[in-house]
């Protein structure tokens, strides 16, 4: 089978490797669609790493199963699950699997023709296309972010960063009844801004052109109750603190990929304004798959609006070039059996 190998920054090549055979408890899945995540594009642009595989937002068809697999059969369409709770640690035993201390990861290797993993890393999907199924994983990130940001009926929200996760979070905020949604996103990201408008942003502010917090305060002098951050926290958190109303909640999913990245913000304001800051990692994300699947089935999140480009695996280099240009031309870029 063909599989993509990456050397960062900037290199990807397809290699012929042997197709794995499923052992007991495993399934072999033919990849139909795999999304390029913001973290993949960011890594491709700027990380340093030796040859490795990537791809964690995917769906495909079960083509073989090993002994003892229950709940999956050949021909099922499945969505790849990034992580599952262990079921045995203290948090799991206390009924808090979202705080699992030994979450199991499914690995990133789906820019390929097939993947072979333990069956619990595949979630069978119904009444969804494989492309829609490939959006379940990133949608669980958006879902967790909106929950952690405490967005409720009537909330005022500032969303910093309208990439695919941010756009889905925006749509979910609208869905759960937020009264006002402000979006901060660069003016050059034309394609994504169009969808932000369509999915219900009340006011879009451009950090490359204007003072976002100043403009926001002209409309919302006391600040907003919820701030959702999908870009690097080192860039966004100080702004989030400035934009928050007293008692506000800031939730973030941006990752720095550095062991000691530091944040700078007005700590006194944070204290006197009784703010809350929440790291909103969605893992173990299997807990949210049924809900995300339902949101896609009901077209609360319309995959066809989010996915703008599709490339066959053979053209993965082109796909990454486009994804790295960000939201000027593309919203979500898919690679797979096209
Ligand atoms: Zn991702
Ligand atoms: Zn656990």
Q: How many domains make up the coordinates? A: 2
State the helicity in percent bands.
25-40%
Elements, N to C (H/E): EEEHEEEEHEEEHHEHEHEHEHEHEHHEHE
Bound molecules: zinc ion
- The appropriate CATH architecture of the largest domain is Alpha-Beta Complex
What is the level 1 CATH name of the largest domain? Alpha Beta
Extended strand count: 18
Cα gyration radius (Å): 20 Å
Determine the strand fraction and express it as a percent band.
Answer: 25-35%
Mean pLDDT score: 97
Distance between the termini: 16 Å
CATH homology superfamily name of the largest domain: Medium-chain alcohol dehydrogenases, catalytic domain
Shape: globular
Instruction: Say what the CATH topology of the largest domain is.
Output: Quinone Oxidoreductase, Chain A, domain 1
Write the topology of this structure.
Blueprint: E1 2-8, E2 11-16, E3 26-35, H1 38-46, E4 49-52, E5 57-65, E6 77-80, E7 83-84, H2 90-93, E8 104-105, E9 114-118, E10 122-124, H3 130-134, H4 136-148, E11 156-160, H5 164-175, E12 180-184, H6 190-198, E13 203-205, H7 212-219, E14 224-229, H8 233-243, E15 244-252, H9 267-272, E16 276-279, H10 289-297, H11 303-306, E17 307-312, H12 316-324, E18 332-336
Parallel strand pairs: 11-12, 11-14, 12-13, 14-15, 15-16, 17-18
Antiparallel strand pairs: 1-2, 1-4, 3-5, 3-9, 3-18, 5-6, 6-10, 7-8
This protein binds zinc ion (ZN) (2 copies).
Description of the structure:
- The chain is globular.
- It has 12 helices and 18 strands.
- The model has no long low-confidence stretch (mean pLDDT 97).
- The longest helix is centred in the middle third of the chain and has 13 residues, at 136-148.
- The chain has helices at residues 38-46, 90-93, 130-134, 136-148, 164-175, 190-198, 212-219, 233-243, 267-272, 289-297, 303-306, 316-324, and strands spanning 2-8, 11-16, 26-35, 49-52, 57-65, 77-80, 83-84, 104-105, 114-118, 122-124, 156-160, 180-184, 203-205, 224-229, 244-252, 276-279, 307-312, 332-336.
- It is an alpha/beta fold and 338 residues long.
- Strands 3, 5, 6, 9, 10, 17 and 18 form a 7-stranded mixed beta sheet that branches. A 6-stranded parallel beta sheet has the order 13-12-11-14-15-16, sandwiched between helices.
- α7 runs parallel beside α8.
- It has 2 domains: 2-138 and 283-336, Medium-chain alcohol dehydrogenases, catalytic domain (Quinone Oxidoreductase, Chain A, domain 1), CATH 3.90.180.10; 150-279, Rossmann fold.
- It binds zinc ion (2 copies).
């Amino acid at each position: 089978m063909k599989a993509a190998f990456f050397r960062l920054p900037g290199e990807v090549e397809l290699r012929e490797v042997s197709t794995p055979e499923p052992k007991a408890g495993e399934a072999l899945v033919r990849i139909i669609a795999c999304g390029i995540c913001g973290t993949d594009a960011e890594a491709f642009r700027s990380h340093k790493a030796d040859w490795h595989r990537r791809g964690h937002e995917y769906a495909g068809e079960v083509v073989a199963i090993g002994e003892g697999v229950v709940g999956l059969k050949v021909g099922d369409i499945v969505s790849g699950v990034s992580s599952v709770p262990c079921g045995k640690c203290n948090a799991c035993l206390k009924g808090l699997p979202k705080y699992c201390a030994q979450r199991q990861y499914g690995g990133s290797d789906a820019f390929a023709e097939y993947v072979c993993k333990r069956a619990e890393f595949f979630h069978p999907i119904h009444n969804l296309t494989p492309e829609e199924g490939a959006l379940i994983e990133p949608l669980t990130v958006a879902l967790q972010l909106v929950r952690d940001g405490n967005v409720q009926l009537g909330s005022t929200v500032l969303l910093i960063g309208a990439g695919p996760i941010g756009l889905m979070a925006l749509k979910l905020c609208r869905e759960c009844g937020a009264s006002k949604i402000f979006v901060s996103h660069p003016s050059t990201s034309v394609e994504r801004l169009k969808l932000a408008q369509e999915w219900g942003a009340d006011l879009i502010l451009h950090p490359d052109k204007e003072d976002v917090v100043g403009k926001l305060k002209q409309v919302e002098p006391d600040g907003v109750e919820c701030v959702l951050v999908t870009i690097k926290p080192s860039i966004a958190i100080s702004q989030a603190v400035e934009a928050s109303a007293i008692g506000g909640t800031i939730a973030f999913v941006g990752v720095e990929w550095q062991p000691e990245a530091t944040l700078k913000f007005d700590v006194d304001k944070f204290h006197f304004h009784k703010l809350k800051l929440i790291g909103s990692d969605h893992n173990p994300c299997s807990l949210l798959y049924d809900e995300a699947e339902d949101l896609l089935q009901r077209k609360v999140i319309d995959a066809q609006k989010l996915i703008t480009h599709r490339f066959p695996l053979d053209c993965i280099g082109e796909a990454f070039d486009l994804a790295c240009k960000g939201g000027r031309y593309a919203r979500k870029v898919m690679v797979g059996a096209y």
